[in-house]
Amino acid sequence: MSEPQSVISARNLDLTFQTNDGPVHALKGVDLDIRQGEFVSFIGPSGCGKTTFLRVMADLEQPTGGEITVNGVSPREAREARAYGYVFQAAGLYPWRTIGGNIRLPLEIMGVPKAEHAERVARVLELVELAGFEKKFPWQLSGGMQQRASIARALSFNADLLLMDEPFGALDEIVRDHLNEQLLKLWDRTGKTIAFVTHSIPEAVYLSTKIVVMSPRPGRITDVIESPLPKERPLEIRESAEFLEIAHRVREGLRAGHADD
Amino acid sequence: MMYIIAAVLIWVAGWWLNVRLANGATSDRMAVKFMIPAIFGLTIVIVWELLVRGFEVNPVILPAPSSVLLRLVDEGPILWADFRQTILKGAVSGYVIGTVAAFVVAIIADRSDFLTRGILPVGSFMAALPIVGTAPIFVKWLGSDWESKAAVVAVMVFFPILVNTVAGLKDTSGMQRDLMRTYAAGYWQTLFKLRLPSAAPFIFNGLKIGTTLALIGAIVAEFFGSPTVGMGFRISTSFGQLALDMVWAEIVVAALAGSAFYGAMTWMEKRVTFWHPSQR
Amino acid sequence: MKSVLPVLTVIAAILGIWLLAVIPMNMHLVADQAQRDGAVVQPETPAARQGLSGAALAVRNPALIPLTYSFKRPRLPSPQQVAGEMYETIFAKKITSKRSLVYHGWVTLAPTLLGFAIGTGLGILLAVGIVYSRVMDRSVMPWAIVSQTIPILALAPMVIVVMGSMGIQGLFPKSLIAAYLSFFPVVVGMVKGLRSPSAMQLDLLRTYNATGSQGFWTLRLPASAPYLFASLKIGVSASLVGTIVAELPTGARAGFGARMLVGDQYGQPLVSWAALFAAALTAAALVGLFSAIERITLRRMGMAAA
After folding, report:
1. C22: which of A237, A246, B222, C212 is 20 to 30 A away, CA to CA?
2. Domains of chain C, each with CATH number or no CATH
3. Rounded CA gap, B151 and B94, in Å?
4. Of residues A8 and C99, more confidently modeled
5. What is the pLDDT of residues C120-166, one digit of tens each?
6. Is the dihedral of CA C218, C219, C222, C228 positive or negative?
7. Mutate to test the interface with B, among A109, A147, A161 (most CBs of B within 10 A)
8. What DSSP state is assigned to residue C190?
9. The dihedral sign for the CA sequence C233, C234, C239, C241
10. CB-based contact A197:A34 (threshold 8 Å)
11. Are B47 and B11 a contacting pair, CB within 8 Å?
12. What does the pLDDT look like over B97-135, one tens digit per residue?
């Protein structure tokens, strides 16, 4: 049994894909704990297993060895209990539904009473600063707004855990900065636990309370950095000495992972 | 001779007008976009009329548009009765039966990947076959009234709609399916909320192909036996009486019915798949 | 390759349904015949039998079931009867015989291919015209699209009759129909194909200051290949269907369509069914041929996905 505060707990986790070119070790001997209310970033080059790890938490991939619990139960039970919201690389909004309709989609599937829909949609749209866009269709919105809507969709059913797979990876830097700032505010207001996959060092350092550095072949954790940055983080914090020091350490960790090649 | 010179002049004038319109500043306006093909069509009809008169073409070979128009007006009740028998009873009921059957089979096949992989190639093979050749067999089995026509139509429209529906149901991205999985959504929830809507453009493609097939099936099947009413019946008997203007009148009705049927499907498609990149 | 087993399963299921359907479809005919031959049939009068379904009749007279598969003039022939008739008329008869399906097949295939070639050629020319001439695009293209919604195929037999009355017979009238039916799919597909190069690709050629014909031969024409093949496959099966329908009710003596009708009118259902399946095989062969050419060509051009 894990401690009650531990939202994610992985012990000696392995995942091997069988491909035509032989087995690929996507994850090997991964140990990690994510406590309630943490903002944890996973960073590493492509092929390091960071997305795979997130998908294991979401029960979208099955580990081939080791143990993992989500909220103290198996990922499958957690998924069936609708314990987490997942945000993909692309917004993936249904083009035939309005923004409001897209946010209602999980509510309909999960059988949330109809009477609550309107209030919940309004609340999450306000959280991602999209109030007033409820009746628009996704294709009428910019890429950044679509991604915000997809975050709202993940928030709508009140799961305490948010799994985000490079959600801002396809957006340009200016939009990205803005969304990072908004995401931090949202995390602060909602107190959710967030697992966030990224390949941007500044993004990881800026957002996280804990940074997990991973490296490929086999996919494993090389460093876990507890961020000393304060909870209140204006964008300018990225020019502070403290920030640059953590970024430096992340870069070192990434480089060490590559030295094995 | 006058007629032929007039025909040439009209043709040149019509073409000149269209060149001016198509290359003019207003060519992208909606009204002009409709006007150009309308002028083109009208020019052809007028030239046809003038040539038939000028060369004194035997009406048994090619009737003049004016005599066809006369028939359309004079024989209204007969044409309407034929339309009801062939289009409303034969084609539409067969179309509905074939569509429903295709949907049912597609949903059943969709539950098994094995069946899907079998049905797709067999279905697209069947869709390319001359199924209209089964018309004599169905007329023999079901008699000469509209039931046999509906059966031919149902079989003809079944395969294209089946193939398109099955292919459409398969056409969702991995990410969209993963999303439904993170919601722990069941099979039917995924079907109704994700896969049917995203399959709609494919399904409508099949439905549109089916409209023309339905009319062909219903008319051709009447050549093999029908009560004394129906478009196919009228076409073949009018031929026997060398009343080509009546045949052409039926052709006009068939063309209007075909375009209207297709247009209705396109209109529904626009309503349902307004979100698809090809529609917006 | 991994779909071989599923395809075979589906085909086996269809054959199974067919085999089962043969029994109730032919049961009444078989029972009548058996009674005339002196057998005891339940119930005894034809009138009483009419009140029963074929399946119910089969349950009461299980001994007659095997006869439904070999009945001479069945409502629904069994698969083995059709296969036997096809073997008989394709392989066992001399090609010159009036009963040989190879002979009838050629009568249908020749105008199909001639018309298809004409229709495709004209279709490509019109498509080029539409892409390069704004007037043609605006005035002809809407009609090309509308024409596909018109059940013109249903009028095929009439065209044959009209041309016959003008003294034109043989290959040409049927080719005309085949050409018409392959013409519009090719026009619509080719226009789409010739317009498929992206704005960026066209701009690239502008930076080379390429001439219009260079642009056509090096970019537009190769880019249209996948669209052309898709249209060719639709066109060739439409041509074949057109030729067969043209042969159906026009008193033609030879061709698949004529065989289908002859079998129907002279009470030889096996002839109809054999012609129907032979026509299906021919259509499959034509589409298969064009798919093969498509695969090879696109691979040579480096456009094939797999």
Report:
1. B222
2. 4-76 (no CATH), 101-300 (1.10.3720.10)
3. 6
4. A8
5. 999 999 999 888 887 777 778 788 777 777 777 777 777 777 777 77
6. negative
7. A109
8. H
9. positive
10. no
11. yes
12. 999 999 999 988 888 888 888 888 888 888 877 888 888
- What is the SS3 assignment for C126? helix
On chain A, the residues whose CB falls within 8 A of the CB of B175 are: 88-90, 92
Q: Give the tokens for residue A40.
A: 């944890």
Structure tokens at B93: 């009921």
Chain B residues within 8 A of C154 when measuring between CB atoms: 215-216, 219-220, 231-232, 235, 254
What type of residue sits at position C24? P
Q: Which pLDDT value is given to residue C44?
A: 73
Confidence check on the interface: ipTM exceeds 0.85, yes or no: no
Q: CB of C186 within 8 A of CB of C235?
A: yes
Q: What is the pLDDT of residues C28-53, one digit of tens each?
A: 777 777 777 777 777 777 777 777 77
Does chain A reach chain C with at least 3 CB pairs under 8 Å?
no
CA dihedral A228, A233, A239, A245 (to 10 degrees): 10
Calpha distance B219→B208 (Å, rounded): 18
CB neighbour class for B109 (10 Å; exposed up to 12, middle 13-18, buried from 19)? buried
Task: Provide the pLDDT for residue B153.
Answer: 92
Instruction: Note the pLDDT of residue C305.
Output: 52
d(CA A97, CA A102): 6
Q: Do B40 and C143 touch (CB under 8 A)?
A: yes
Sheet holding A210-215, edge to edge: A84-87, A161-165, A193-198, A39-43, A210-215, A220-226
Backbone phi and psi for residue A22, each to the nearest 5 degrees, phi listed first: 95, 180
Residues C256 and C195 sit within 8 Å (Cβ to Cβ) = no
Q: Which residue has the tokens 């994850």?
A: A27
Backbone phi, psi, residue A33, to 5°: -125, 135
Q: How far apart are CA B148 and CA B232, in angstroms?
A: 13
Identity of the residue in B141, B232, B263 whose CB atom sits nearest the CB atom of C154: B232
Q: Going by C-beta distance under 8 Å and a sequence separation of 6 or more, which residues neighbour residue C33?
A: C67, C71
Which DSSP helix (H) or strand (E) runs through B150? helix B146-170
SS3 content of chain A, % helix, strand, coil (to 5): 40, 25, 35
**Chain B (260-279) residues lying within 8 Å, Cβ to Cβ, of chain A:** 273-277
Q: Are A59 and A76 in contact (CB under 8 A)?
A: yes
Is B220's CB within 8 Å of C260's CB? no
Contact between chains at B137 and C272 (C-beta distance less than 8 A) = yes
Contact C100, C274 (CB under 8 A): no
| 8 Å CB contact of B33 and C244 | no
> For residue C12, what is the nearest residue in chain B, using CA coordinates?
B118
Say which amino acid occupies C263: G
Question: How far apart are the C-alpha atoms of A186 and A151, rounded to whole Å?
Answer: 10
The fold of B72-272 is: MetI-like fold (1.10.3720)
CA distance B87 to B146: 10
Which amino acid is residue A186, in one-letter code?
L
CA–CA separation, B154 vs B235, rounded Å? 22
Q: Which residues of C touch B119 (CB under 8 A)?
A: 6, 10
What's chain C's Rg over C-alpha atoms?
26
**CB B14, CB B40: distance < 8 Å:** yes
Inter-chain CB proximity B182 and A96 less than 8 Å: no
Parse chain B into domains and list their residue ranges: 2-57, 72-272
**Which of A85, A92, A94 is facing B197, going by the closest CB pair?**
A94
pLDDT digits (tens, 9 = 90+) for C272-282: 888 888 888 88
Specify the pLDDT at position A164. Answer: 93
Contact C75 B140 (CB under 8 A): yes
Q: What is the pLDDT of residue B97?
A: 94
CB contact under 8 A, B178 and A60: yes
Query: Which domains can be identified in chain A, with CATH numbers?
Result: 6-83+163-259 (3.40.50.300), 93-158 (no CATH)
